Amino acid sequence: KRHFLSAGDLNAPQAADLLDLAEAFVAFNRQTSKTLDILKGRTLMNLFFENSTRTQSSFELAGKRLGADVVNMNPKTSSVAKGETLIDTAVTLNAMRPDLLVIRHASSGAASLLSQKVSGSVINAGDGQHEHPTQALLDALSIRRAFGRVSGLSVAICGDVLHSRVARSNVALLHTLGASVRLVGPPTLMPAQAERWGVTVHHDMKSGLAGADVVMMLRLQLERMQGAFVPSTREYFRFYGLDREKLSRAAPGAKVMHPGPMNRGVEIDSDVADDPAVSLIQDQVEMGVAARMAVLTSLAARLEAGQ
Ligand code: CP
């Protein structure tokens, strides 16, 4: 496919190939600050309609390390702030012939909509509560590096699953790679009929974390809870915040992940988040650049082939 919109776009061999490629980029990035010419002469546009620290900067770095010309459009200082629609913005930018468009938007489906309006490759960098496929890829890379495999592991994804595009993409990719997934969180923050995703659902951290190899915490997304149930952060931490005591239920050697940004003392205790013996959180950030280099490289090959 020309675009990368969903973690479900990847079958197991494609996902494994991307992880192998990303692994090679991890080694490359650690050895040198040189750039490659895989995307030489190509233009990458970052269109972040929602805030980002990790994803935007890692796509920018990934594009530059591969030799692309990178343009960052800031909606706050662009004509979006004057009321221009997503479609008009897309058609306008398309006239400048970008090869790769990376989009983050608050609306689920925005990346798919953009892909129907432009001639370049679209990469979904997070659309509403729908998907964040490159996050799932960097998470799988982090898990594979920590355990040597993803297949057969038990991953507990915990917290505000309802509003989490990270959870949806991770469930899809982890299943493709042969892991089993449990979702853990309060009923009010769990999608209706989440069991249909092929997961087990727990509302209690003790049972949800029991024997888990990976504990993936999610941010409480208060900005997506307009007028709905908003938990008290103190009470939330008591029942669903990850601390040593709750983590002790997981398997020996279990690893802790968080896509960031973290709400310390809300969904995760600093004592756990900052412990390099258990936390993969900084590895996840490093893997973000390599995983995105792999995705851009695979799309560049399709651009070359005219697919
Ligand atoms: N994990 C993630 O998407 O982080 P940012 O919002 O900082 O990009």
TrEMBL record:
Keyword Transferase tagged: yes
BP GO terms, sorted: 'de novo' pyrimidine nucleobase biosynthetic process; 'de novo' UMP biosynthetic process; amino acid metabolic process
Record-level GO cellular component terms: cytosol
Binding residues for carbamoyl phosphate: R54, T55, R104, H132, Q135, G260, P261
Catalytic activity: carbamoyl phosphate + L-aspartate = N-carbamoyl-L-aspartate + phosphate + H(+)
Binding residues annotated for L-aspartate, in chain numbering: K82, R165, R219
Gene3D superfamilies: Aspartate/ornithine carbamoyltransferase
EC assignment: 2.1.3.2
Class of the enzyme per the UniProt entry, highest EC level: transferase
UniProt KW ATP-binding keyword: no
Occurrences of domain Aspartate/ornithine carbamoyltransferase Asp/Orn-binding (ranges): 152-298
Domain Aspartate/ornithine carbamoyltransferase carbamoyl-P binding residue range list: 2-144
UniProt pathway: Pyrimidine metabolism; UMP biosynthesis via de novo pathway; (S)-dihydroorotate from bicarbonate: step 2/3
Family membership: Belongs to the aspartate/ornithine carbamoyltransferase superfamily. ATCase family.
Role noted for this protein: Catalyzes the condensation of carbamoyl phosphate and aspartate to form carbamoyl aspartate and inorganic phosphate, the committed step in the de novo pyrimidine nucleotide biosynthesis pathway. Reversibly catalyzes the transfer of the carbamoyl group from carbamoyl phosphate (CP) to the N(epsilon) atom of ornithine (ORN) to produce L-citrulline.
Subunit structure: Heterododecamer (2C3:3R2) of six catalytic PyrB chains organized as two trimers (C3), and six regulatory PyrI chains organized as three dimers (R2).
The name this protein goes by in its record: Aspartate carbamoyltransferase
Organism: Caulobacter vibrioides OR37
Highest classification ranks of the organism: Bacteria, Pseudomonadati, Pseudomonadota, Alphaproteobacteria, Caulobacterales
